Amino acid sequence: MQTNIKVLGWLHVVLGVLGLLLGCMIVAIMLSAGVISGDHEAIGILMIISICGVGLTLLLCVPTVVAGIGLLQYRSWARVLALVLAFFNLFVFPHGTVFGIYTFISLLHADAALLFTK
Fold first, then answer.
1. Could you give the CA distance from residue 80 to residue 42 in angstroms, rounded to a whole number?
2. How far is CA 48 from each of CA 7, 21, 62, rounded to the nearest angstrom?
């Protein structure tokens, strides 16, 4: 069971970091498109959308990385956070659904509960 928890923790960290990188890349592309167009109104609108995109990316990806780090250290709060995030991942078909189900199976197992009671 420890192997499942370690794999799950690393998956959380890797997927969270990849989400952050993807979000930053999309923001950079949007801002570049605004600058290339040369239209001041387009630059302003894309700036607002980019700021909202950064906020949404941080809101979704940072808790995933934090949960992954906590799972690697067998923290009880990380187990709860990962289960909450797994519920939301169920709606991201298909990879989020698989990831969410794997999280539920791994963290709700009786042996996993014993690892987090330290």
1. 42
2. 37, 19, 21
Q: What is the pLDDT of residue 118?
A: 64
SS (H, E, C) 7-65: HHHHHHHHHHHHHHHHHHHHHHHHHHHHHHHCCHHHHHHHHHHHHHHHHHHHHHHHHHH
Alpha-carbon span 41 to 15, nearest angstrom: 35
Q: What is the pTM of this model?
A: 0.86
Digit-coded pLDDT (tens) for 39-89: 888 888 988 998 898 898 889 899 999 999 999 999 999 999 999 999 999
81 contact partners, CB below 8 Å, separation of at least 6: 63, 66, 67, 70
Amino acid identity at 50: S
* Domain residue spans of the chain: 2-115
